[in-house]
Amino acid sequence: MALRRPNPLFRNLAAKAAAVPMILATLVVFLGGTIWTVVHSFTNSRLLPRFNWVGFDQYDRLWESTRWIVSIQNLMIYGSLSLVFSVGIGLLLAILMDQKIRYEDTFRTIMLYPFALSFIVTGLVWQWILNPDFGIQSIVRGLGWESFTFNPLHDPQLVLYGLLIAGLWQGTGFVMCLMLAGLRGIDEDIWKASRVDGIPAWKTYLLIVLPMMRPVFITTLVIVAAGIIKLYDLVVAQTSGGPGNASQVPAMYVYDYMFQAQNLGQGFAASTMMLLSVLIVLIPWAYLEFGGRKHG
């Protein structure tokens, strides 16, 4: 008599039972909180949330706000530059590390160390470094170049680039480690075959290795993009959104309206738009990772 196979539903019951609290917390806290925020973005909630429906009025006010438009523009400039430079520099450093250099572990630790710091610490450190009174400008002038000027955090035209320097300093090492892990996952036989065929190393990287690292690139772009969208700590620590509104970002807009201006409806509307931005990033990634894999 053939044995009946157990129902897959009842396999690994202990593991499934252990996952129940996490699933409930996700559904109640994250999903429930998200739905609650989106619903209240259509109300005129002020100090306390209330169901006084006003339709899209909060969104109309949001997109008529000059500060919100400036924050979106700033995020687009910072985000595009951060994506390009962090991935580019991280990939270049990973390729250099992939040459089996001496003291690789030491260099990798040094490059990754800034990522262990919080954005608040990073922002304060670079605020001091870029301070014209005792930072880079003061040091260079002390060496004899009296006319040297480098004060990006107080220049509305350059403040975003001052933030970018600090962001790259912190995040590039992490990108390097992701890229290096992808490079180390390439079969060594590919390198042996390219050397036998006399293919230059740069051409092997460009035409063979990098196309094989597509999943690593996609994952890295998603992680970096998600961090850019929620950018807040670095800006607060370095510039507090100034000078003027020159370094405002959407997360600061949300925080100020929800906790300082006591306008929950407007803050909920802004946070809903940020959620939409995250979904715009995550949905294509999920399709490329799972949909593309499903269709072969």
UniProtKB/TrEMBL annotation:
Subcellular localization(s) per the UniProt record:
Cell membrane
Q: Which CDD domains does the record match to this protein? A: TM_PBP2
Q: Which SUPFAM superfamilies match?
A: MetI-like
InterPro entries xref list? ABC_transporter_permease (IPR051393), MetI-like (IPR000515), MetI-like_sf (IPR035906)
What UniProt keywords are attached to this protein's entry? Cell membrane, Membrane, Transmembrane, Transmembrane helix, Transport
PROSITE patterns, alphabetized: ABC_TM1
Q: Does the keyword Transmembrane helix apply?
A: yes
Highest taxon of the source?
Bacteria
Q: Which residues form the ABC transmembrane type-1 domain?
A: 72-285
The similarity annotation says: Belongs to the binding-protein-dependent transport system permease family.
Q: By what name is this protein known?
A: Sugar ABC transporter permease
